[in-house]
């Protein structure tokens, strides 16, 4: 076991809102120094200020994970932060609900870029540091990474890509002192996910959760991530599927009223 006096450091992508922001709050409360990255700089700074005011160590860095050169520059910036103990690859999202027959390939490309190549970029940039720190890499995939549904093709394909990235990486790193954890959430109500998927149509976004008593919250997933990364180093939680009680599969959702 390594001994260290400074707080462990966690890097979280997509940390300006939703599951990423909640994960930053939970990891900070668990004693991590958190490095928050996302494209929306103003929201990042607001969260960093909130965490700092609460006595936590938090740093904001504006980053588009699909910009590989920018990700490499970010890795150099992290040099002054010493070991990197946890990386949470959370940046991602869905665009559109068109069928395979009618989807715009540009949407599919964007989803592959952020959900798969963004994760690949940040993973490649920080992996040597994670291995050196006996660290933990988390991939936020989705239940969409495990089974498909009509109208979900582009997102489901991208999340299957994220799932395969995590599975392959775990095989390739076997024997090295680093863990690869995949968290696959089902129905989580956040302010942004469904709204982005429905291209800003709030009514359609709200309809996703209509009648569902208790969809998961970003905090539920953040707690799960914090629990998984804080297991003893020899315990690797390979894959956790987390759904609300009202959702038994991507298809079977209990709605009231
Ligand atoms: C989100 C889950 O059901 O919208 O990652 O694909 S779903």
From TrEMBL:
SUPFAM superfamilies with a match to the protein in the record: NAD(P)-binding Rossmann-fold domains
Domain called Ketoreductase: residue spans: 8-191
A Pfam family it matches: adh_short
Keyword hit for Disulfide bond: no
Keywords: Oxidoreductase
PROSITE patterns in alphabetical order: ADH_SHORT
GO molecular function, one term: oxidoreductase activity, acting on the CH-OH group of donors, NAD or NADP as acceptor
InterPro entries found in the cross-reference section: KR_dom, NAD(P)-bd_dom_sf, Sc_DH/Rdtase_CS, SDR_fam
Protein origin, superkingdom: Bacteria
The family this protein is said to belong to: Belongs to the short-chain dehydrogenases/reductases (SDR) family.
PANTHER family assigned to the protein according to its UniProt record, in alphabetical order: ALCOHOL DEHYDROGENASE (PTHR42901)
Name of the protein in its database record: SDR family oxidoreductase
């Amino acid at each position: 076991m390594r001994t260290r006096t400074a707080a462990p450091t966690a890097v979280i992508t997509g940390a300006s809102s939703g599951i990423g922001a909640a994960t930053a709050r939970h990891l900070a409360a668990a004693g991590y120094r958190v490095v928050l990255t996302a494209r929306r700089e103003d929201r990042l700074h607001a969260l960093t200020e909130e965490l700092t005011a609460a006595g936590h160590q938090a740093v904001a860095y504006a980053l588009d994970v699909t910009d590989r050169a920018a990700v490499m520059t970010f890795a150099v910036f992290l040099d002054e932060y010493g070991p990197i103990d946890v990386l949470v690859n959370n940046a991602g999202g869905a665009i559109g609900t068109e069928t395979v027959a009618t989807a715009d390939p540009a949407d599919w490309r964007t989803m592959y870029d952020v959900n798969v190549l963004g994760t690949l970029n940040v993973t490649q940039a920080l992996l040597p540091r994670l291995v050196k720190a006996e660290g933990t890499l988390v991939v936020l995939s989705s239940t969409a990474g495990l089974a498909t549904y009509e109208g979900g093709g582009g997102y489901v394909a991208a999340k299957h890509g994220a799932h395969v990235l995590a599975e392959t990486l775990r095989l390739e790193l076997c024997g090295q002192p680093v863990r690869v954890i995949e968290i696959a959430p089902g129905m989580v109500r956040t302010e942004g996910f469904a709204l982005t998927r429905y291209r800003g149509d709030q009514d359609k976004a709200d309809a996703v959760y209509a009648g569902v008593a208790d969809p998961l919250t970003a905090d539920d997933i953040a707690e799960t991530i914090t629990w998984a990364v804080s297991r003893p180093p020899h315990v690797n939680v390979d894959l956790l599927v987390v759904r609300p009680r009202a959702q038994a599969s991507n298809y079977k959702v209990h709605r009231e009223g």
